[in-house]
Specification:
With 415 residues, the chain is an alpha/beta fold. The chain has 2 domains: 209 residues, Rossmann fold, CATH 3.40.50.11720; 184 residues, Rossmann fold, CATH 3.40.50.2000. It has 19 helices and 14 strands. It is globular, with a radius of gyration of 23 Å. The N and C termini lie far apart (47 Å).
Length: 415
């Protein structure tokens, strides 16, 4: 299995290099990985004490950040190496203050793993959720360097739990401890003989809760919203944007304003969305030259401010579940205590199922259902309050994963 995996890694690397000239995202990853070791060697020296944090992409970074912050505070004299696999994580967080150096993780070959660990030699390694790389993890274990996996979520169909998954399964045993999100994941690990498991819950609940402790004020959003009911559609995709645009065009509601924050903010996508709207619409990039107070729709053609924008919402729609791209983060709006509308493809997102059961979230699959749910939430302020409080209470009841992880690591908790 080891031989097959390593041949597959080499072929995958060659494939990425071949595709790179024709795909900008893949090109950034390929070029970033080529520069990773030289960048690392400029920052980390042989005498440095280090920690290594690894995330697949941006979502896992946000998930791990409360733990990273605790470790950063405690290990003040250590250098922290933060690695990403995906360009979408690296490009947005390449200047993260949590780390001394942020790089793409070099491809998971035995040679790269040895070279990486020769340079970094981390006292502690933290992987988030998944992105299990056998060569790196087995090399960590062979050097007796401790590693933990946090916010892990496993499913029965994964290779670790199949007869053919021995090599990947071995990699899990390189972790000295795994913190899972739920009982199912713990049971699956126990089924393969891995018992150093704690059900900590999901660190995302701690992460989004921290949003309440910062200043979320955005003057231009206040100017836009005024005293109207505000519907914020976050991380939208075209299939969801079509429902929202049609609703806006067909419903003349003077007391309602809409903020749309698309997942894809490429110029053509934003232009197409704006052209589909028959009401006064302002882009974030045009806000300084526009009459925000009179606009009906505000389109966010930038990144990094959606979490703050949710604080102004009375109702949220979160994209991804109408298509096959995967439901985006519903906890970000939930922490501000508002009802949430999503699509119907949410089976892999237990928090969605739980919030729906708690009557704080509503799933729709077509225009008729979207119109019905949104109309009811706009017209019924009492239902908005009930659903919003249900979501906020759900967040509060699921906090605490970070405390369990830091206590295991003997890291003092800070307020």
């Amino acid at each position: 299995m080891s031989f097959i995996y390593n041949i597959g890694i080499k072929l995958a690397n060659l494939g990425l290099q071949a595709i790179a000239p024709f795909n900008d995202k893949i090109k950034r990853g390929v070029m970033g990985r080529k520069a990773a070791f030289s960048k690392l060697e400029k920052i980390v020296s042989a005498n440095d004490k280090t920690l290594w944090f690894h995330c697949a992409s941006l979502g896992e970074y946000e998930q791990g950040l409360p733990v990273f912050s605790g470790l950063r505070t405690y290990y003040r004299n250590h250098k922290i190496v933060l690695t990403f696999f995906s360009p979408s994580g690296y490009e947005i967080r390449k200047n993260s203050p949590i780390a001394d150096v942020v790089i793409y993780l070099p491809i998971d070959s035995k040679r790269n793993a040895r070279k990486f660990l020769d340079i970094v030699n981390p006292e502690l390694t933290v992987f988030v959720k998944y992105d299990i790389w056998p060569n790196y993890l087995n090399e960590l274990k062979s050097r007796q360097l401790p590693a933990i996996l946090i916010s892990a979520a496993f499913r029965p169909h994964q290779s670790y739990f199949k007869f053919y998954g021995s090599y990947l399964r071995k990699a899990l045993f390189a972790f000295e401890h795994i913190f899972t999100q739920n009982k199912t994941s713990k049971a699956l690990l126990n089924s393969i003989g891995y018992n150093n498991v704690t059900i900590s819950g999901d660190t995302r609940f701690d992460r989004v809760s921290n949003q309440l402790n910062i200043d979320n004020t955005l003057d231009y959003i206040e100017n836009f919203k005024q005293n109207k009911v505000c519907v914020v559609a976050g991380s939208t995709w075209p299939e969801g944007e079509a429902l929202i645009a049609r609703y806006i065009n067909e419903h003349a509601l003077d007391n309602v304003k809409f903020i749309i924050a698309p997942h894809n903010i490429k110029t053509n996508q934003i232009k197409q969305l704006k052209n589909s709207l028959e009401v006064e619409t302002v882009l974030f990039s045009e806000k300084d030259n526009s009459k925000l107070s009179s606009a009906k729709v505000f389109i966010v053609d930038t990144i990094g401010i959606l979490s703050k924008i949710y604080s102004y919402a009375d109702i949220a729609y979160v994209g991804g579940a109408l298509g096959n791209t995967g439901l985006h983060n519903t906890l970000e709006p939930a922490v501000f205590g508002m009802p949430i509308i999503i699509g119907n493809n949410y089976d892999k997102f237990p928090e969605a199922s739980e919030m729906i059961a708690n009557e704080g979230m509503f799933s729709i699959s077509n225009q008729k259902e979207f119109n019905y749910v949104l109309n009811e939430l706009i017209e019924n302020s009492e239902k908005r309050r009930f659903s919003g409080n249900s979501n906020l209470n759900y967040i509060k009841s699921n906090k605490g994963a970070v405390t369990k992880i830091l206590e295991y690591l003997n890291i003092p908790l800070t307020n």
